[in-house]
Amino acid sequence: MTEEKAKKAAELAEKELQEEEEEKQIRIIKKAIKQTLEAIKGKEKSRDKLNKEIKTLKQDMDNIRDGRLDLIAERQEKDKGAKKTSIIEVVREKEVHHHHYHDRWFEPYKIYIKDEQPGWITTTNINSTFVGDSDCALTVTDNNFVGYSQANINNSISKDSWSGTYELKDGSYITLT
How do residues 2-27 score in pLDDT, each as one tens digit? Predict the structure, then answer.
């Protein structure tokens, strides 16, 4: 009988070890699934942020093409995320110095373009006339500009000058018509 009890105890101990091993495997699988779900959620959050940034940049392109700098300025006033994402910051000029002040095509704007190499500053207006050194500045704004290119521009110039062929850093070309 003792031998039988020992045999039963051994079987019971073996069964418990097997159940413990199975529970350990289940915990590992559950942990892997949980971490995978968390990774998916994180990637989806990143994707949603990137999609929003892409949408903002495409809206900027469309607004420039349509000569609607006013829409970019309005979006940047309302949404700080859009202002941070945009490559240009559009600021409506306060004073109008021409006879077309009632026509949205000639409303004056100042655009600030984020420089790729902070510290190098070029300041010109859209007519290629040099703007004095007093307009050059190193600043830090909400967009974290260290340096910027600046231009005085209006909607009609924006609409008429956006098309062309652009060579990107990766060597590819994009033609906008």
Answer: 888 888 888 888 999 999 999 999 99
Cα–Cα nearest to 148, from 105, 124, 115: 115
Nearest by Cα to 162 from 67, 59, 57? 67
The alpha helices in 96-166, defined as continuous H runs, are: 155-161
Give the whole-angstrom CA distance, residue 46 versus residue 50.
6
End-to-end CA distance of the chain: 95
Domain ranges of the chain: 52-176
Placement of tokens 């289940």 in the chain: 26
Q: Does the reported pTM lie above 0.85?
A: no
Cα dihedral value 166, 169, 172, 175, nearest 10:
-10
* Residue 91 to residue 72: CA distance in whole angstroms: 9
Count of CB atoms situated within 10 Å of the CB of 63: 22
